[in-house]
């Protein structure tokens, strides 16, 4: 899929972690914009997001300066918290929630900068 996105839409690979066809995390840039993606997976996060082609398989990550403030605002507005605030081993503080239509949103302090590389 990464190669297809690069060929079809003009993205370039900024980072790719995984083995073989499995992508744990990838960052694709398009000018100053970036998307992050990974393979469908059979873990707690994969169960939250769902399988591609079944109406699931999509999630949105929003980089924030203050995950605690974002968490409080989302919770106050009625977001369903599906993973509480946690400090990741890669240095990000994050939480995961669903909006009222069921879409999965992750908010975290991990903030890759597309313009830093390439």
Summary of the model, kept short:
The protein has 118 residues and is α+β, with helices and mostly antiparallel strands. The protein has helices spanning 2-9, 44-49, 67-76, and strands at 12-19, 22-30, 33-37, 59-63, 80-87, 93-98, 104-108.
Strand content: 35-45%
Instruction: Give me the number of helical elements.
Output: 3
Computed structural class: alpha+beta
CA-based gyration radius: 15 Å
Order of helices and strands: HEEEHEHEEE
**Unreliable parts:** none
Say how many strands there are. 7
The shape is globular
State the end-to-end CA separation: 20 Å
Mean pLDDT over the residues:
87
Helix content: 10-25%
Question: Sheet with the most strands?
Answer: 4 strands, mixed
For the biggest β-sheet, the strand order reads 4-7-6-5
Provide a descriptive summary of the structure in words.
The chain has 118 residues and is α+β, with helices and mostly antiparallel strands. The chain is 20% helix and 39% strand. The protein has three helices and seven strands, in the order αβββαβαβββ. The longest helix is centred in the middle third of the chain and has 10 residues, at 67-76. The protein is globular, with a radius of gyration of 15 Å. The chain starts with a helix and ends in a 10-residue tail after the last strand. The mean pLDDT is 87.
Question: Layout of SSEs?
Answer:
Layout: H1 2-9, E1 12-19, E2 22-30, E3 33-37, H2 44-49, E4 59-63, H3 67-76, E5 80-87, E6 93-98, E7 104-108
Parallel strand pairs: 4-7
Antiparallel strand pairs: 1-2, 2-3, 5-6, 6-7
């Amino acid at each position: 899929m990464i190669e297809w996105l690069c060929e079809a839409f003009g993205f370039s690979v900024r980072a790719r972690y995984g083995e073989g066809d499995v992508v744990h995390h990838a960052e694709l840039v398009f000018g100053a914009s970036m998307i992050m993606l990974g393979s469908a997976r059979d873990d707690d996060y994969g169960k939250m997001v769902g399988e591609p082609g079944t109406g699931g398989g999509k999630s949105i990550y929003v980089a924030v300066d203050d995950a605690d403030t974002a968490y409080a605002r989302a919770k106050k507005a009625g977001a369903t918290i599906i993973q509480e605030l946690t400090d990741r081993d890669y240095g990000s503080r994050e939480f995961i929630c669903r909006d009222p239509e069921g879409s999965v949103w992750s908010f975290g302090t991990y903030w890759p900068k597309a313009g830093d590389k390439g």
